[in-house]
């Protein structure tokens, strides 16, 4: 006759394996999302020094008009906090302003900052006040006589962060610093960025 069919007890192995694979995939996605998130590179000023200075107050017989020439050495860094990403910035420049008038510009060539690395950039800016700029600005004489000139520097880096050559995002780094150039001590003082 008929033999009763024995039913095997159901196994939850398939459900457990599927659930474990799902949890593992979610963990991998969360970790990769936190690592692969595109972060902003950071721009920091390390130091600014005065290398050379030449000036005349306009009362000297050799040069009847006032002038001011200086060489400022600026050292700053760009840190790329991204994993698997390179920050490629375009040609840029650093500007030095006195009372809103541009008195010095230096070009900064394009370059790359590798993942989790810091790129150190050393820039020399020649600051020159032409007679036209000096005569047109009424504050120069009083600032010059006080022995202190207030300067503003501005630098802007525009570039692209590439993560694993798949994701691309445009980033712009800007930094404005106010500084005092002291004639008596031949130093840059009071830098605020």
Question: Helix and strand layout, with pairings?
Answer:
Elements: H1 13-35, E1 42-56, E2 67-79, E3 85-89, E4 92-98, E5 101-108, E6 111-113, E7 118-129, H2 131-136, H3 139-146, E8 148-163, E9 167-182, E10 187-192
Antiparallel strand pairs: 1-2, 2-7, 3-6, 3-8, 4-5, 4-8, 8-9, 9-10
Strand content: over 45%
Helix content: 10-25%
CATH class annotation: Mainly Beta
Structural class determined from secondary elements? alpha+beta
Number of helices: 3
* Largest sheet, strands/sense/barrel: 7 strands, antiparallel
CATH architecture: Sandwich
Descriptive overview:
The structure is a single chain. This protein is α+β, with helices and mostly antiparallel strands and 193 residues long. It has a single domain (38-192), classed as Immunoglobulin-like, CATH 2.60.40. The chain contains three helices and ten strands. The protein has helices spanning 13-35, 131-136, 139-146, and strands at 42-56, 67-79, 85-89, 92-98, 101-108, 111-113, 118-129, 148-163, 167-182, 187-192. Strands 3, 4, 5, 6, 8, 9 and 10 form a seven-stranded antiparallel β-sheet that branches. Strands 1-2-7 form a three-stranded antiparallel β-sheet. The radius of gyration is 30 Å and the shape is rod-shaped. The mean pLDDT is 83.
Features:
single chain, 193 residues, alpha+beta, Immunoglobulin-like, seven-stranded antiparallel beta sheet, three-stranded antiparallel beta sheet, 3 helices, 52% strand
Summarize the structure.
This protein is α+β, with helices and mostly antiparallel strands and 193 residues long.
